[in-house]
């Protein structure tokens, strides 16, 4: 695929290029200098930088960029399955497939395009995929970068089958943090969660912000649509807004699991935290012709905006 630059309104631009493995990727830029990169391998956002060029997503220094494995970092798309399943690979096949650019996507609201740099990607099952997961679907993923640097992912999954199917889903979001011991999450207090470290047994979170002293691998249930991840050292807060994604995965592998992952540095758990907008506890069921939308918006604000708790600018 050649290099082409299309100029969108507000001088936002997209660039079609290739990564160092020759895999097609799209670079989204806004006039202020922020950028995002989306690989056609997996439809995975691999980079999101602010207008000062600072990388906001974590990527392991040992990440493997060769298909079919998903790169360890960025925002892998977990579909049609989050977690383990007999007939599917961990977290489903979507993140291990080559997506295409959708030149004629189904229309979105004007606000989802106006003033944004965006790309629409499409995934449809191959004959091979249908052997493992016999459901015909169309998965349209819109990735956009706003003039304010906001990163938005909109997944629309339509059942083009003759019978219903169910799936679970997650935006497996690797946030870059200064030091995990300096990070807290606000918005998940008092919620029930399934703890993957205890065979997904159900527990209830205590009443204050979540901090980290050991491995955490939980699915918080029926979580709010606005969650704040405060990085004290960098005085930076990630604001996660979601729609259609009732659950929130929180994962940090800590020391022991970090050492067990070949594509992850032994000490890298200190610089990352996964906080995933997801639909896991109650899988989504689509009748023929029905469509589901899962929307994720990521912004970064100075932590001073959140000193009184979840008072987040709109
Ligand atoms: O809860 C998040 C999780 O399921 C962890 O158990 C861990 O396996 C993580 O996802 C990473 O999964 P991956 O397949 O990307 O190595």
From TrEMBL:
The keyword Plastid does not apply. One of its GO terms (biological process) is carbohydrate metabolic process. Its EC number is 5.1.3.15. One of its GO terms (cellular component) is cytoplasm. Keywords: Isomerase. It catalyses: alpha-D-glucose 6-phosphate = beta-D-glucose 6-phosphate. GO terms for molecular function: carbohydrate binding; glucose-6-phosphate 1-epimerase activity. It holds the Pfam family Aldose_epim. Substrate binds at residues 72, 90, 95. The keyword Isomerase applies. Belongs to the glucose-6-phosphate 1-epimerase family. PANTHER family: APOSPORY-ASSOCIATED PROTEIN C-RELATED, GLUCOSE-6-PHOSPHATE 1-EPIMERASE. This is glucose-6-phosphate 1-epimerase. It comes from Actinidia chinensis var. chinensis.
């Amino acid at each position: 695929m050649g290099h082409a630059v299309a100029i969108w309104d507000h001088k936002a631009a997209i660039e079609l290029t290739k990564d160092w493995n020759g895999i097609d990727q799209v670079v989204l830029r806004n006039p202020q200098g922020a950028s995002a990169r989306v690989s056609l391998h997996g439809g995975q956002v691999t980079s999101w930088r602010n207008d000062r060029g600072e990388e906001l997503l974590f990527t392991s220094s040992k990440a493997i960029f060769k298909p079919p494995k998903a790169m360890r970092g960025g925002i892998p798309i977990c579909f049609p399955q989050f977690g383990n399943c007999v007939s599917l690979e961990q977290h489903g096949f979507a993140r291990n497939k080559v997506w295409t650019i959708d030149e004629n996507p189904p229309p979105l609201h004007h606000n989802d395009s106006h003033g944004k740099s965006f790309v629409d990607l499409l995934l449809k099952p191959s004959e091979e995929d249908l052997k493992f997961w016999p459901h015909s679907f169309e998965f349209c993923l819109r990735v956009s970068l706003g003039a304010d640097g906001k990163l938005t992912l909109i997944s629309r999954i339509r059942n083009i089958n003759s019978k219903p199917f169910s799936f679970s889903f997650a935006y497996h979001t690797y946030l870059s943090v200064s030091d995990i011991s300096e990070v807290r999450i606000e918005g998940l207090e008092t919620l029930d969660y399934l703890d993957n470290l205890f065979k997904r047994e159900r527990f209830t979170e205590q009443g204050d912000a979540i901090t980290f002293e050991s491995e955490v691998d939980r699915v918080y249930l029926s979580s709010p649509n606005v969650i704040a991840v405060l990085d004290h050292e960098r005085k930076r807060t990630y604001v996660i807004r979601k729609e259609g994604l009732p659950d929130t995965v929180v994962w940090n592998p800590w020391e022991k699991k970090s050492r067990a992952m070949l594509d992850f540095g032994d000490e890298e758990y200190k610089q990352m935290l996964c906080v995933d907008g997801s639909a896991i506890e109650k899988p989504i069921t689509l009748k023929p012709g029905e469509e589901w939308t899962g929307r994720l918006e990521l912004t970064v604000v100075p932590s001073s905006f959140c000193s009184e708790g979840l008072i987040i600018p709109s």
